[in-house]
């Protein structure tokens, strides 16, 4: 498992090179933007249970066969496994965002997941739909652009200082997209 710092070391070492100006500049940016990153991680983590339950219920709402006999969220044992999996995925996305590196997500969560799902008959198109909903909710929470109309009773805004979160938003988006492509 690597983070932005260990990644720079491993990359330099592979070239037998000293840590250079460009690497150091990138790390400087990582530090300078560090509080934003922590806010973004917090925005996802502290809304995780809402995002997970909303994503899984949305997925089921769109495909109700999932909770009928033969569906992969039936019976409750599978429903529970599904909710747990969505929570696992979201948790690893927050770890990757904190580290600024996807390796923790790849190695500990995604490696072999597609094969596991194939063996168990877990439908990947439905999983991908749930990941897409968690992605939309998480990016909205990072940017505080979630609305009361969509959030309903559980509407929660982080109220963090407004600034330019575009880089962090696309980085976070890339981790969700990584989950989607690992299952595709
Ligand atoms: C740390 C990383 C990690 C991951 C990622 C993980 C995933 C994971 N999900 C599993 C099962 C499962 N995953 C699901 C998930 C779903 N079913 C659906 O219809 C939906 C599309 C979807 C939820 C979004 C279900 C229902 C099972 C149980 C399948 C079964 O036993 O028949 C299993 C098989 C063992 C078990 O049931 O616990 C694993 C290993 N386990 C881990 O330790």
Task: Characterise this structure.
By secondary structure, the chain is mostly helical. The chain folds into two domains: 1-32; 34-183, Globin-like (Orthogonal Bundle). It is built from ten helices and no strands. The longest helix is centred in the middle third of the chain and has 24 residues, at 76-99. The structure holds phycocyanobilin. Residues 56, 66, 72-73, 78, 81-82, 85-86, 88, 108-109, 113, 116, 120, 122-123, 126-127, 130 line the site of phycocyanobilin. Phycocyanobilin binds next to helix 5, helix 6, helix 7 and helix 8.
SSE layout and pairing:
Elements: H1 4-14, H2 21-32, H3 34-45, H4 48-62, H5 76-99, H6 103-110, H7 113-120, H8 124-143, H9 148-151, H10 166-183
Helix pairs in contact: 3-5, 3-8, 4-5, 4-8, 5-6, 5-10, 8-10
The structure holds phycocyanobilin.
